[in-house]
Amino acid sequence: MHVLLLKEPRDGDSGPDPYIKELASHGHKATLIPVLSFKFVSLNTLSDKLFQPEKHGGLIFTSPRAVEAVKMCLEAEERREEWKSSVKDKWNAKAIYVVGKATAALVRNLGLNPLGEDTGTAEVLSRVIIEREDTNIPPLFFPCGSIKREVLPTALRENGVPLETLTVYQTAEHPDLEKNLKNYFTEKSFFSPSGVKFCLEVVRRLSGEHLTQIKFAAIGPTTQDAMTAEGLSVSCAAEKPTAEHLAAAIAKALQ
């Protein structure tokens, strides 16, 4: 089975993407095409807030890009040394909440201790935060993207947990998305879109009358909801956004 992964490649150069590796272990030939491109913004404001941990009750990261923005703020040697010598320990005295193992790994690389990596979704993480936090804490700081879902902020607000958000990256369609899809496209493929709104129009145009022959797989429940809202029939969805859960979902769907 050919599997086309519409997602971002893993960060760094520490071997093959885990989704490609896991699907290969199940006998699938997987190809990864990036869907999104990112532009980082408000880094000066982000840096100021990172170096004033006393003003916040903790940190929330729901995407690798937000952690990457923090890393960019630490590129200057003097900032990096200050972070290592004192600032990161002040943050580690508070809660550092994350969604997903990939984000958690990047947070650890910053010297921070993540909580919630097994939650899998913002909905589940919000429940963890609400259970752990008081309403009288300083606001939790949430660096995020321009098209973040409002599930977590809404849940925290409705339960009285103070939150401060800052948009640190903007999301757009990857400039080579359509070209890469044209080069790859086949009649029967699994798609696991991270950017449904950016790739669906291209997929529909390229597949034409063969759209109903394609089996669509979602990388997690959030993506499944987005695909269903666009009228797609989703063959399977991973219980959590991990390579193992996606491979298991595809294997079950093919039985």
**Topology pattern, helix = H, strand = E:** EHEEHEHHEHEHEHEHEHEHEH
**What would you say the CATH architecture of the largest domain is?**
3-Layer(aba) Sandwich
* Number of helical regions: 11
Helix content: 40-55%
How much is the radius of gyration in Å? 19 Å
* Neighbour order of strands in the largest sheet: 3-8-7-4-5-6
Task: Kindly name the structural category.
Answer: alpha/beta
- Our measurement of the CA-to-CA distance between the termini, rounded to an integer number of angstroms, reads 13 Å
CATH class of the largest domain: Alpha Beta
Instruction: Give the oligomeric state.
Output: single chain
CATH topology of the largest domain, by name, is Rossmann fold
Q: How would you describe the shape?
A: globular
Mean pLDDT: 86
Number of strands: 11
Which regions contain 5 or more consecutive residues with pLDDT less than 50?
none
Q: Main β-sheet, in a few words?
A: 6 strands, mixed
The domain count comes to 2
Measured by DSSP, the beta-strand proportion falls in 15-25%
